[in-house]
Amino acid sequence: MDFTISPQIPSNQANPDEGFFDLLMPNPGSEQNLQIVFKNISKKAITVEASIAPATTSSTGIVQYTETQGSLDPSLKYNIKDLVQFPSEINLLAGESKTISFRVKMPDVNFNGLIAGGLTFKEKASHQSTNSTKGIMLTNLYQYMISILMRQVHNKQMPQLTLSNVDASQNNTRNVIAVNLENSAPYFFCNLNVKADVTGLTNKTLSYHFKNSSMQMAPNSNFNLAIPVSIQGPLASNQYSKPLQAGNYKMTMTAYGQEDSSGVYSALDTSGQLQHYDYRWSFSKNFTITQAQANKLNRTDMSIQKVNDNWLIGLGAGVLLFILVVFFFLFILRKRRKKSNDEKRALQNKINDMQKELEKKNNN
Predict the structure, then answer these.
(1) Of 167, 228, 168, 165, nearest to 196 (Cα)?
(2) I need a labelling partner for 134 at 20 to 30 A (CA). Which of 106, 197, 238, 300 fits?
């Protein structure tokens, strides 16, 4: 990349060893400036674009700090985008270093929780290279991201995990059962260990399973946990997924959170090690996949073998052509028969007239 950034950690940092902003701002409505040093390490002038987004949870159970397409969780009370003022573009001359201020504001009311988000910086139309610095992440899109956490008090609350919905969906063009989980608490949810099973009620031979012990959730966020139905990842030669079937299903899930050596709940992680947790939740929900849903998802699932229906189209066209030919010949035959019958009728009428004329002469 053609530029570097260096966050200037303020004195009210909750943890001075962190390379991102973790601000302890105890007074409601308080404001302060954050400073980041930008340095252009190229020999040309560049423009750096800046943006901010609230922390959300990805479909794989990872906290992300960049803008997403989905809507934010309804439990999110304070969007960090409304609390940080910053320039959308930073212009840097060749070799120039510049300190840029970002203004942050705490909500005007008492707030027991975390407000989390991330500042993202990328160069306009640049040629990129790779780089990394402690506390600053460089993504494969060649952009820097710095996390911002804001809090009035330094404490924790119990995570609030709830099950919102279960339905058939797709993830990366593969069929999945999407289980929407919500963390409505204003705190990070770490060490989320989930075991989920889906069983068929209509077709009792169907079952799908999921296990992951290293997920996390952002404060006041939700995500669709994907239970695989189709084969995930690359397919072997002549390997295909089975189509999703319509019918009634049941999803059961057990989730553990917050690893603690003295935790009262225990569960195996994905490596087979026994871990202890402070919290446990159990969920169960019945749901239905309609035939229309199954057909639509199966058509767009790239791992399902598609039936070649060209021969059906050809057969249909052939049958239609045959029917048209038969109707054509029947029409011609009927027309010819009608013409022949008309000629016979005319000849018979002529003969009858001649006979009448002959009889009339004989009588005279």
Answers:
(1) 228
(2) 106
